[in-house]
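Quick one, C-alpha cells below:
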C-alpha cells in the first residue's frame, strides 16, 4: 500500500484494553497542526468485551469528527506475558476495524522508527518521547504516555509520507543521541523541516 498524500489528517493510535491513546494531526506538506489528543479509558472493572466496544465506539466517533486520511499504529511486537499480548491485540483489532469501517488506510511503524523520528534515538524511553512531543507542539503540561505515544506515531507517519521530513528526520537521528535529546529546541525541529503551529490549548 502506498503512503498517504502529504496533505491530509492523520490519527495516531496507541492501543490498550484499559487506556488507548489517540492523537490527530493536520498535515500540509511540511506543516503539522495538532487538532486533538487524549485517552480512551473504559472502566477497569468492565468485562473485556464491554471495554473493547467502548474503545471501538470512541475511535469511530473520532474518525467521524476528524475525517482522517490515514491511521498510524506501531507494529506488533512480542510480549513476555501472553495474556497481555492477547488483550493488546484485541484493542488493536477494534482500532483497525474502526479504520476499515471508515475506509481509512492503516500504516504501521516499528517502535524504533517512531522513537528515532520523534526523539532522535531508537532507544529513547517514554519520558523522552513525551518530552519531545510536548516540545514539538508547545504543550505546557504533561499529557500522559498513552496520548504522547499516539502523537509520536502520527508524527512518524507524517515524516514518512513527506520526503523532506523523512530525509531530515533521518539526519536528526544520526546526530541527536539519547544523551542530548533535551537539547533539541523548537528552532532545531523547524530546521529539520518541521513547521508546527503553536498549540493554543
Amino acid at each position: 500500500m502506498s503512503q498517504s498524500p502529504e496533505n491530509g489528517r492523520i490519527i495516531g493510535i496507541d492501543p490498550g484494553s484499559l487506556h488507548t491513546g489517540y492523537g490527530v494531526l493536520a498535515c500540509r506538506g511540511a506543516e503539522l497542526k495538532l487538532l486533538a489528543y487524549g485517552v480512551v479509558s473504559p472502566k477497569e472493572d468492565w468485562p473485556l468485551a464491554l471495554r473493547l466496544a467502548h474503545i471501538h465506539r470512541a475511535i469511530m466517533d473520532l474518525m467521524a469528527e476528524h475525517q482522517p486520511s490515514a491511521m498510524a499504529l506501531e507494529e506488533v511486537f512480542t510480549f513476555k506475558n501472553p495474556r497481555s499480548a492477547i488483550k493488546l491485540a484485541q484493542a488493536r483489532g477494534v482500532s483497525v476495524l474502526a479504520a476499515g469501517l471508515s475506509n481509512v488506510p492503516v500504516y504501521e511503524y516499528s517502535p524504533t522508527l517512531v522513537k528515532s523520528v520523534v526523539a532522535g534515538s531508537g532507544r529513547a524511553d517514554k519520558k523522552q518521547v513525551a518530552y519531545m512531543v510536548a516540545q514539538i507542539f508547545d504543550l505546557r503540561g504533561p499529557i500522559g504516555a498513552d496520548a504522547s505515544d499516539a502523537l509520536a506515531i502520527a508524527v512518524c507517519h507524517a515524516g514518512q509520507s513527506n520526503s523532506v521530513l523523512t530525509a531530515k528526520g533521518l539526519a536528526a537521528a544520526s546526530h541527536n543521541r539519547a544523551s542530548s535529546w533535551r537539547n533539541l529546541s523548537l528552532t532545531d525541529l523547524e530546521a529539520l523541516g518541521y513547521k508546527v503551529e503553536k498549540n493554543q490549548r
